[in-house]
Every structure is written in structure tokens, then in C-alpha cells.
Amino acid sequence: MKIIMLGAPGAGKGTQAKMIAEKYSIPHVSTGDIFRANIKNGTELGKQAKEYMDAGKLVPDELTVKILLDRVAQEDCANGYVLDGFPRTIPQAEVLEDALKKLGDQIDYAINVDVPDENIVRRMSGRRACLKCGATYHIEHIPPKQEGICDTCGSELVLRDDDKPETVQKRLQVYHEQTQPLIDFYTERNILKAVDGTKDMKEVFNDIIAILG
Ligand code: ADP
Ligand code: AMP
Predict the structure, then answer these.
(1) Strand 28-30 vs strand 81-84: parallel, antiparallel, or unpaired?
(2) How many other CB atoms sit within 10 Å of the CB of residue 123?
(3) 57 with 177: CB under 8 angstroms?
(4) What is the pLDDT of residues 93-145, one digit of tens each?
(5) Any atom of ligand 1 within 6 Å of the Cβ of 127
(6) pLDDT confidence of residue 122
(7) What H or E segment, with its residue span, contains residue 181?
(8) What is the bridge-based pairing of β-strands 136-138 and 109-114?
């Protein structure tokens, strides 16, 4: 099963993608996580990506598409995957579609996690991330057992640089301009499914399971 998660930054794509990955035993592929790992390791890709990310902009398609196609070509993706944060532009969606077509394959579902802009800034300022293992928490809605510490790996939790309110506004603008058109793109292909992302995360997950079967 090949799934795409769509939605504004902070809608809960990553939270749901991790739960989907576990339930269906498929890898969770997040381009944002791949960039953050590169930043942490000081790679050239990380250095280039960080400039765009900190400004709330998208990393250029030339950099993003290659890392995604390399990742999904790996052995563990042979039986499917859940993409979180990719595609974010129509050209990215077209490249993915063409690459899959060459293999006689296609995306099965594009799930749009729908959350209005009003809720997003609050969600993002409360998000705490573990940069070591990628786990995500929310200080009010989904707190870690011990404040500031990751339940999974014990590392320190941080407020991401790009989750500061002024950057979040920019990211929302970029989302509406460049990513939201993907809703029509996948509606035309009859694979778009929408869920109400304002519900409790377990309820959102149940709605997604009802779609995926
Ligand atoms: P995205 O991957 O779409 O950017 P995340 O999954 O990281 O979003 O979620 C953004 C923030 O909102 C995180 O702090 C997360 O813990 C929290 N969150 C996710 N889903 C819900 C939900 N259904 N209700 C309340 N908070 C949520
Ligand atoms: P995320 O972790 O998905 O919220 O992504 C964090 C940031 O990484 C985004 O705001 C972008 O700057 C960058 N990024 C992640 N995925 C993509 C993508 N598919 N295309 C362009 N930029 C991306």
C-alpha cells in the first residue's frame, strides 16, 4: 500500500503517518526528517536545506525529488510506504507519478488531514520534537511522560527553529500557494480522501483506518 499524507504544516501528518506505518508494517518516509538528519550530520545537503527551512520556504524540487526517489527505491519500501511531507508541489507529484508509472505502479491513497489555519499556529508553538529519533509531542495535547524528554529514546525535546510563530505564518502561506493545489491533483485521480484533523489523534486514526481497511 502506497499512501501520501497531505495537509498544512502542523495538521498532524507525521503523527498519523507513524501510526499508519506501524499498523500496516510499512516505512514512514518523511522528507522533513531526512533533511533534519542531514542538518544534524552537517552534510552539504543539510546546509543547503537549512537555509530554506529556517526561512519557512520549500527546499527546491531539484534537491528534494532525488532524495525521495532514492529513499523509496530502497528494499524496505518494496511493499509500500507512507509519505509524509512529500509531494509538496505539483512538479514533485508529477515526478513521483511518472517514476511509479515506469514501474507499472501508482499511489493508492492521498489522505488530506484537514485543519483550519486558526488551529495551526497553536499546534506548532506547542510541538516538541526529538531530533534524534523523530518522535513528536505536543505540550498540551500529547505530552511526553517526563517534561522535555523523549519517551522513546530519552533525548532532549526541542522547539523546531521553523515552528516559531513568524516562520509558521510564512509556511502556511507557502502551503496555500504551492501545496494545496495537490488536493485537486489527487481528486482528479480519484484517490483523495479527507479526514477531520481537528479531532483527537486516536479518532483521526480510526477515520483513516476506516478508509484504508
Ligand atoms: P505535521 O507532520 O503535519 O507537521 P505533526 O504530526 O508534527 O504535524 O503535528 C503537529 C503538532 O500537533 C504536534 O505537536 C502533534 O503532537 C500535535 N498533534 C497531532 N495530531 C493532533 C491532534 N489530533 N490533536 C491535537 N494535537 C495534535
Ligand atoms: P516537515 O517536517 O514536513 O514539516 O518539513 C519541514 C521543512 O522541510 C519544510 O518547511 C520545508 O522547508 C522542507 N521540506 C520537507 N519536505 C519538503 C518537500 N517535499 N519539498 C520541499 N521542501 C520540503
Answers:
(1) parallel
(2) 21
(3) no
(4) 999 999 999 999 999 999 999 999 989 988 899 999 998 999 999 999 999 99
(5) yes
(6) 86
(7) helix 181-188
(8) unpaired
Residue among 2, 36, 88, 128 flagged as catalytic:
88
- Parse the chain into domains and list their residue ranges: 2-116+169-212
Q: Which CATH architecture has domain 2-116+169-212?
A: 3-Layer(aba) Sandwich (3.40)
Cα–ligand 1 centroid distance for 104 (angstroms): 34
Which grid coordinates belong to 193? Answer: 480522501
Q: According to the model, what pLDDT value does residue 18 have?
A: 97
- Pocket flag, ligand 1, residue 126 (CB < 6 Å): yes
Q: Is the CB of 135 under 6 A from ligand 1?
A: no
210: left (phi over 0), alpha (psi -120 to 50) or beta: alpha
Closest CA to 8 of 130, 118, 92: 118
Is-catalytic flag, 128?
no
**Binding site membership of 123 for ligand 1 (Cβ less than 6 Å):** yes
> Which pairing describes strands 157-158 and 127-130: parallel, antiparallel, or unpaired?
antiparallel
Q: Is 55 in contact with 107 (CB distance < 8 Å)?
A: no
Cell readout for 158 is 526541542
Centre of ligand 2 from the C-alpha of residue 32, in Å: 5
**Which stretches in the chain have pLDDT values below 50?**
none
Report how far ligand 2's centroid is from the alpha carbon of 183 (Å).
17
Closest atom of ligand 2 to CA, residue 35: 8
